[in-house]
Amino acid sequence: MKTMFALNKCLVRACCNQAVSAFGEDGSISDEKNYCLDHIPDPGRSQQNIYDYIKSHDTIIGLNAPGMTFSGIDLSNKRFFGCNFMHCTFINVHSEGLISRMSMFDFAVFTDCNLIKCNMQFSSFAGSTFTHTIFTGSTLFQINFNGINSFQSSFDDSDLYNSRFIMAKLVDTSFRNCNLKRTVFHSIEHKNILFKMSNTRDADFDAAGKAQFLNIPAQPAKEIEGTGA
């Protein structure tokens, strides 16, 4: 049984894109090298194979689908392990109760998506964009949200233990009633961000964040001994 994705490059030597999964005659995911969506001979068929595989399996292991678009599908209660959805586009996707372990969604785009009560651990959304996307009531342990752009989205009632939002842009984004223990907010750009009823004292803010969200003024620089007049 396949246990982890292989980040194979496209078979076109000059191409640096990642290849999509190939499938064996029995319909299972194969480790066979393949092309990216730009160079595969029949991209429509390749994408349909991936759609059909996800639809027909509750547990998906080692799937590579970089650059694909998923629109209006239901991923509720699906379980993804070691999957690659980098640079994907998700539009109006319903995925209540989705489980993800060690999967990558880097630089993906999520628009009008429902990720309520998801359980995600050791996964990455670095550089992704969320617009009208809801993570309410989710478990999000050790997730990489570095560099995300979040607009009118919600993480309310979620457990964000040890996750990272370094250099994230958070606009009209809510973190109400969240567990923020060891959650890192450094160098964030924000507007209308809410932390009501969350344990912000247990989060890791940089000096600017502490001054604004914890009302702790920045400490003045200490004088170096022996430099007085």
What's the layout of helices and strands?
Blueprint (H helix, E strand, L loop, with lengths): L21 E2 L5 E2 L12 H14 L2 E3 L7 E3 L7 E3 L7 E3 L7 E3 L7 E3 L7 E3 L7 E3 L7 E3 L7 E3 L17 E3 L12 E2 L3 E3 L12 E2 L1 H7 L16
Parallel strand pairs: 3-5, 4-6, 5-7, 6-8, 7-9, 8-10, 9-11, 10-12, 12-13, 13-15, 14-16
Antiparallel strand pairs: 1-2
Characterization of the model:
With 229 residues, this protein is mainly beta. 9% of the residues lie in helices and 19% in strands. A 7-stranded parallel beta sheet has the order 4-6-8-10-12-13-15, with no helix packed on it. β1 (22-23) and β2 form a beta hairpin. 38% of the residues are buried. The model has no long low-confidence stretch (mean pLDDT 92).
Order of helices and strands: EEHEEEEEEEEEEEEEEH
Q: Estimate the helix proportion, in percent.
A: under 10%
Measure the end-to-end span: 74 Å
Mean pLDDT: 92
DSSP E strands, number: 16
Keywords:
mainly beta; 2 helices; 229 residues
Describe the structure in brief.
The chain has 2 helices and 16 strands. It has 229 residues and is mostly beta strands.
